[in-house]
Amino acid sequence: MNTSGHRRQAGHSNPRGPADDGSPVRALIVDESPSVLKTLASLLEQQTDVQLIGSATDGYGAVRRAMELSPDLVLMGLHLPGINGLEATRQIKARSQIPAVILVTADGTPGCRAAARAAGTDGFVGKQHLSTQLRPVIRKLFPRKSNTLGDYA
């Protein structure tokens, strides 16, 4: 929330974030699994207006890297060592530079989705649907970039 009590819009809370000047969406990826991190990195590389700026493998590392790097977007795993992805999201969202956070998890239950919303996530993608759902969720959060994210379908 900003000082007037309104939630900041994704992509507009970070002064170094995406704008009409062609700057890329700066992304941080967080997951305990090296193979998921590799998949996320590969999917982001396919999007011309998303720049991978860092990664973390645990919840505390996610909070620390978000503070250091001020990303526009965090792709956050749920089950992380230290603190889980929901608590890491709460801590990241409590800072002055608020990125958009997409929860990336294999748990697609309604309870998990509700907990993700309550923690302040801006989007939700099942790990089993990364290749088809990640790009549309990023487009929704960063609409100014939608015509250049590499999808010509």
Name a few traits of the molecule:
single chain, about 150 residues, alpha/beta, five-stranded parallel beta sheet, disordered N terminus, disordered C terminus
Describe the structure.
The radius of gyration is 14 Å and the shape is globular. Helix 4 (110-119) links the parallel strand 4 (100-105) and strand 5 (123-126). The termini are far apart. Helix 2 packs parallel to helix 3 (85-93). It has helices at 34-45, 59-69, 85-93, 110-119, 130-141; strands spanning 25-30, 50-56, 73-77, 100-105, 123-126. The longest helix has 12 residues, at 34-45. It contains five helices and five strands; from the N terminus they run βαβαβαβαβα. It has a five-stranded parallel β-sheet, with helices on both faces. It is of the alpha/beta class and 153 residues long.
Distance between the termini: 36 Å
Strands, count: 5
Largest sheet: 5 strands, parallel
Helix count?
Answer: 5
Side by side, the strands of the main sheet go: 2-1-3-4-5
Query: Which spans have pLDDT < 50 for at least 5 consecutive residues?
Result: 1-17, 145-153
Mean pLDDT: 84
